[in-house]
Amino acid sequence: MSDLESLEIETIVRLLSKTPRATIQARYEDCTAIAARHLKDGSEFLFALIKAAVEADVHQTNLIDDVISFLDDTHLVRLAFFLQGEVKRGIDVEGLLAHVALQAPELFPDSTLGDIPDFADWLTHDDPRSPPACHHFIFEEGAPSDMSFPTHRNHPTWHLPRVGPSFAVGGEGTATCPACGKRLVHLVTLDDLGGQRGTLPRLRLETCEGSLEPTYYSHDAAGVPTPIAPLHSPDDFTSEPATKVSTAHLASTPQRWLRQSYGISNSRQNLFRLGGLPSWIQGPQFPVVPGTDRQMKFLLQFDSLAGFFWGSGGMLYVFWDEESRITCHVPQYT
Ligand SMILES: [Zn+2]
Description:
Layout: H1 3-17, H2 24-36, H3 43-55, H4 62-67, H5 73-88, H6 94-103, H7 110-114, H8 117-122, E1 135-139, H9 150-153, E2 163-170, E3 172-176, E4 183-191, H10 192-195, E5 202-207, E6 215-219, E7 225-228, E8 245-252, H11 262-265, E9 273-274, E10 297-303, E11 315-321, E12 326-332
Antiparallel strand pairs: 1-8, 1-9, 2-8, 3-4, 4-5, 6-7, 6-12, 9-10, 10-11, 11-12
The chain binds zinc ion.
């Protein structure tokens, strides 16, 4: 740690602790700018910053939560031990603890994980410590520019190493929605269900952006969708459909990002995911195939970014049933 870096940490801690707290927003940008210089290869600095913030009791702020994503594995382990020590001393580091636990649950006992809301769901899985593999959609432009601040733009989940060919995300769909008459929005067209080896060689996903309710689509042998019941009510939100087209690739999701919480990701992380565990906003909502009690398989989720907007700015979850060739699109929002 250089003298300059120590000074930078002192500056951030001083700026975060200055009273009155009401004017913190003005100083927050200065803190963000200093921290931003250390997001890449700055683990030692960021770890020292988090410790200093906890010791000065100014750690309950987004900036300190955010920098955890940028620690290397060694410093993430050190932070896990440090925070568990603080808990024993009665210090409230719950928020920080949840961030580290999501990224490295193997460093925590079940009793700690059980106290974190997202794990309450995940602990019901057969093997909660081995979540299913998944992929991220990686945009060629990097993080969609809708929101541009350093811990969003540079978050590792927007920059995972790409695998496979590029494809289009977004754009106009081919069908129209029978409920509102608007052209559907194209989400993505998956080959081999993104390597999950389905019965269809391709699956074209299109959805009505105006629907606030679960909507089913049946797919023909070529994977092309037709909207089926239940259809949304005409009162639902109706904006002009998004027509932005982005170029994306898939990336294999590393262990550290297999679990992503909508709330904890706080609009920093890439939540465009194929397979794995859904990042629910309102808790689990697995649809069944109409007329059966067969639960559908989670296929992918899209965030309200990159030209998409779900409900009041939530998430869209798409489920798939291979036997009936039906997808169900479930929006959730805050
Ligand atoms: Zn519609």
